[in-house]
User: Which sequence fits this backbone?
């Protein structure tokens, strides 16, 4: 962050008054050197810069003292020193410079970039920090520099394409929607058992989604993503821990990786104030090429002809003359073609001195939708931080807090599916008076759902306090205490106005659905750290304990029947109110952990970690489990023989092996549970058993193995790393199916199945050009993951036999093998694997569709030319995806289709890619179509190369303003995509939900 002094002029005036009012002898203080020569204290000033200009925030330290200052936004500094003192000038990424103080009062310096500092970078490993060159584990990292170039609201969007081994997919372009993240593949057979652990400033954060009951038609997956509540602008860095050495210290919580989020902290120096604002516009990236009216009408007429219907039925409004057959509406433009308007304003104030630093920031964010109507997402976020160190450096205090409140107002139904399937000659949306047009009850007006609003409100508080005290030389006691609270409320109002008035449904059919979640958690972790230097050996030890408790309460109600729709948000005015079951859940987690690190001469490094976990999610005798790992590194560039390799500047081999666990199964799964039966006896609600008691199941176990090499060339201007990993997850926690005679569908247990994730990860960091007026940095990451089911005893006799295959990935589809369109019958044809003459699910779904990416990559470039900076990120994914057929509408029925469905069979002998059109009256054609949906023919190449992010900024020269540092910029997200995929978006594919938007924003940042 660039630091600017808001009182620079006042300081100059202050010093001028002092100089004018005091005699020179009062300014000078004599000191005697061993030779008897006198030295005098003086006020020194100057400018700190590099080859391109000033370095705001650079540090000036009087060596041997605690006296230091930070340069302002113009790189200027002022400090008191004595003749003969040594000034130490430093700045991250630059070589330190020492200057001896002489009689001159102005000292201007220019610092030189230090490419070797890449190895000196300190990264956050959670319970400890480690220099990158000394790390024995696999840790990926991005910083605020990467995040601030992207106009995004969710931190996961800022991570896409930037980290090897981290696959992130956006599920919808609707504000508040979620992302799926997989760190080195899928470990658990349970879909909800593969999420990583999120840690914010040392405090675990529950990222499980809220509100799935009311959001299914607008937000896919599990509903609202709590990570949307975090403010990306407040994040200083994100580290992702991947291998056993990095994650084992988190025990059962680290099986799927750990995401460490560090918020911005105050820095010493002059008080700085900055304000940043940007405005952006979002649109869909690409429209699907759908049939226009002539093509559509021809398709519908051919479908009825194929079905033997010569007189169009009364319900065929699109072709029987009821609707205008010359009318055409681009429904994608009407329903999802609007611009989403984005506005953001952030202010930050920070400063302090050597002992105490502070930071306070506030962000106001708003984003509308591309749908018609007044819908928007609003967020207000505050981040505050206070750090204090005692004068003797023995005591340190750090307090961080984040408070975020957001409101998301959306239609209850995503209009994307309607935009893709509505007949192009469907009627007008509104009548001449501006009301909803129902066209004599001949259609369901798609914008009627805009009268059914969905709204959620979320208040999030995250607080963390860390106290550290140096008990003795090398021995430090640390205590961390954190608290989080999420208060989530949602509503879905369904007024009678969404129904066709011809149905006669009045306000007695209006309804309201309300639900809320109040989740609170606290975390307490005392730790003891020890560090000792023994000759060339350095020993570091860490021991600690974790106490975590999480409580949540979920409740809701449904109200129905009102005298007026204006009263719909007041349940007391409803004629009927149904209370939904209230769920009170408590989760407790305790652990002890330890780490031992041994470093010999900075050359040989050994790291041992261990943890014993206890979870309330398991029964008696199964609550505790042990996890641990060993990591080792050999920095062979420290060997004497390495000097004979002049091109090589750094070299390291590292390896790790260990175990982590998983308890992501929900609470109370081992107990006999009872739930509301829906029936009552004498007015008393009844209960029924919903889960069987099973105290014998325990933790999933994930065994992780990794080996890697890191090479630096030409003073690390070329830095290459290559890693191979293999993770095996066993004791799968799933529901074991039970016979229906038991009264239960399944029982929670450990399934004797093993899932293996393996692969290669490559990273290349380049600094091709570093000149005075031009610089270029590039980062490339490539991931080649492979997931397979290694073993599953009894698979063929289990209910999972049609879902999994030994040796194949978990997300496969066992499908019919599509052979094309039969030239004689015009129907889709499939392979009869069992040769019984019929196509059946049990005998003929033998083709395998592998949907997981074969590889994914990201290429980030940063170019600097004088005051200009250009950053851009290219993202590439090689994968299979669903064709448009997966929207589920039979070609020839009342649904528009992509133009590629025009290559259709019409008569014997035709070679076509689409079977004959049908309206649903031909059972053979309908059956063949739905088999096609379940075949490999409904999948296609969905690989893509996407210009994920572009940022162009210009720093106004100092001559523009001496008191304000100004930066203007333009940023874009999802700018364009190169793909052979025929439909709108290869990332979300033809899901019926809004794809990620193209966003272009313009902004300015001022620092005082």
Assistant:
């Amino acid at each position: 962050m660039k630091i600017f002094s808001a009182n620079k002029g006042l300081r100059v005036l202050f010093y001028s008054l002092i100089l004018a009012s005091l005699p020179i002898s009062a300014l000078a203080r004599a000191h005697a050197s061993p030779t008897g020569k006198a030295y005098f204290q003086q006020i020194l000033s100057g400018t700190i810069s590099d080859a391109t200009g000033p370095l705001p925030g650079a540090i000036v330290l009087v060596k041997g003292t605690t006296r230091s200052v930070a340069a302002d936004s113009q790189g200027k500094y002022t400090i008191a020193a004595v003749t003969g003192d040594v000034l130490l000038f430093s700045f991250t990424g630059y070589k330190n410079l020492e200057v001896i103080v002489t009689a001159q009062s102005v000292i201007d310096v220019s610092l030189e970039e230090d490419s070797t500092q890449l190895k000196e970078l300190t990264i956050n490993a959670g319970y400890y920090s480690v220099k990158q060159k000394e790390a024995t584990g696999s840790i990926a990292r991005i910083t605020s520099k990467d995040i601030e170039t992207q106009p995004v609201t969710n931190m996961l969007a800022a991570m896409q394409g930037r980290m090897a081994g981290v696959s992130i997919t956006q599920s919808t372009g609707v504000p508040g929607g979620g992302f799926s993240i997989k760190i080195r593949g899928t470990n658990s057979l349970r879909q909800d058992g593969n999420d990583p652990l999120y840690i914010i400033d040392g405090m675990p954060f529950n990222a499980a989604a809220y509100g799935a009951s009311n959001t299914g038609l607008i937000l896919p997956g599990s509903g609202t993503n709590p990570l949307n509540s975090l403010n990306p602008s407040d994040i200083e860095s994100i580290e992702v821990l991947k291998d056993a050495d990095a994650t084992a210290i988190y025990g059962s919580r680290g099986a799927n990786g750990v995401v460490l989020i560090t918020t911005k902290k105050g820095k010493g120096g002059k008080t700085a104030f900055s304000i940043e604002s940007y405005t952006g516009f979002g649109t869909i990236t690409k429209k699907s090429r759908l049939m226009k009216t002539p093509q559509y009408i021809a398709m519908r007429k051919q479908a009825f002809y194929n079905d033997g219907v010569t007189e169009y039925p009364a319900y065929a409004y699109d072709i029987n003359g009821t609707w205008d057959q010359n009318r055409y509406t681009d429904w994608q433009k009407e329903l999802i073609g609007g611009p989403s308007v984005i506005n953001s304003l952030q202010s930050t104030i920070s400063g302090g001195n050597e002992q105490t630093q502070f930071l306070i920031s506030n962000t106001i964010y708003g984003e509308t939708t591309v749908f018609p109507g007044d819908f928007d997402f609003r967020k207000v976020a505050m981040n505050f931080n206070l750090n204090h160190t005692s004068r003797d450096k023995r005591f340190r205090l750090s307090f961080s807090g984040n408070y975020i409140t957001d409101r998301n107002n959306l239609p209850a139904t995503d209009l994307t599916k309607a935009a893709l399937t509505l007949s192009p000659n469907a009627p007008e949306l509104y009548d001449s008076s501006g009301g909803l047009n129902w066209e004599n009850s001949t259609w369901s007006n798609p914008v009627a759902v805009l009268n059914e609003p969905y709204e959620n409100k979320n208040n999030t508080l995250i607080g963390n306090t860390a106290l550290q005290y140096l008990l003795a030389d090398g021995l430090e006691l640390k205590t961390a205490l954190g608290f989080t609270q999420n208060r989530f409320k949602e509503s879905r109002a369904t007024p009678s106005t969404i129904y066709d008035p011809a149905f006669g449904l009045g306000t007695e059919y209006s309804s309201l659905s309300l639900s809320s979640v109040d989740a609170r958690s606290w975390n307490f972790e005392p730790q003891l750290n020890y560090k000792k230097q023994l000759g060339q050996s350095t020993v570091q030890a860490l021991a600690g304990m974790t106490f975590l408790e999480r409580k949540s309460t979920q409740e809701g109600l449904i109200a129905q029947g009102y005298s007026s729709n204006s009263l719909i948000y007041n349940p007391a005015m409803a004629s009927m109110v149904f209370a939904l079951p209230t769920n009170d859940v408590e989760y407790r987690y305790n652990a002890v952990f330890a780490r031992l690190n041994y470093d010999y001469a900075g050359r040989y490094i050994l790291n041992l970690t261990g943890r014993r976990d206890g979870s309330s999610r398991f029964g008696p005798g199964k609550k505790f489990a042990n996890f641990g790992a060993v990591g080792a590194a050999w920095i062979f560039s420290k060997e004497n023989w390495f000097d004979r390799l002049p091109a090589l500047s750094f070299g390291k081999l590292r390896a790790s092996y260990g175990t982590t666990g998983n308890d992501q199964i929900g609470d109370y799964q081992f107990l006999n549970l009872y739930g509301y039966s829906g029936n009552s006896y004498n007015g008393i609600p009844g209960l029924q058993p919903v889960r069987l008691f099973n105290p014998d199941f325990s933790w999933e176990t994930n065994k992780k193995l990794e080996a890697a090499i890191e090479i630096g060339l030409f003073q690390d201007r070329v830095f290459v790393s290559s890693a191979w990993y293999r993770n095996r997850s066993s004791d799968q926690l799933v529901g074991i199916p039970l016979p229906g005679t038991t009264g239960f569908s399944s029982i929670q247990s450990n399934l004797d199945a093993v899932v293996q994730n393996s692969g290669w990860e490559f990273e290349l960091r380049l600094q091709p050009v570093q000149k005075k007026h031009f610089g270029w940095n590039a980062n490339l990451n490539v991931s080649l993951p492979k997931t397979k089911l290694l073993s599953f005893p009894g698979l063929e006799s289990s209910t999972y036999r049609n879902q999994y295959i030994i040796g194949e990935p978990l997300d496969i589809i066992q499908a019919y093998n599509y052979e094309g369109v039969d030239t004689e019958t015009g129907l889709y044809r499939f392979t009869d694997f069992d040769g019984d003459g019929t196509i059946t699910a049990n005998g003929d779904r033998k083709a395998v569709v592998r949907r997981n990416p074969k590889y994914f990559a990201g290429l980030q470039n940063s170019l600097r030319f004088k005051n200009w900076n250009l950053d851009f990120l290219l993202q590439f994914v090689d994968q299979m995806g669903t064709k448009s057929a997966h929207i589920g509408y039979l070609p020839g029925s009342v649904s528009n289709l992509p133009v590629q469905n025009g290559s259709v069979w019409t008569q014997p002998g035709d070679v076509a890619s689409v079977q004959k059109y049908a309206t649903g009256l031909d059972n053979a054609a309908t059956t063949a179509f739905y088999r096609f949906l379940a075949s490999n023919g409904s999948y296609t190449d969905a690989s893509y190369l996407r210009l994920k992010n572009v940022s162009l900024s210009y720093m106004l020269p100092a001559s523009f303003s001496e008191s304000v540092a100004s930066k203007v910029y333009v940023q874009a997200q999802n700018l364009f995509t190169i793909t052979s995929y025929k439909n709108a978006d290869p990332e979300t594919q033809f899901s019926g939900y809004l794809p990620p938007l193209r966003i272009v924003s313009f902004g300015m940042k001022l620092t005082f």
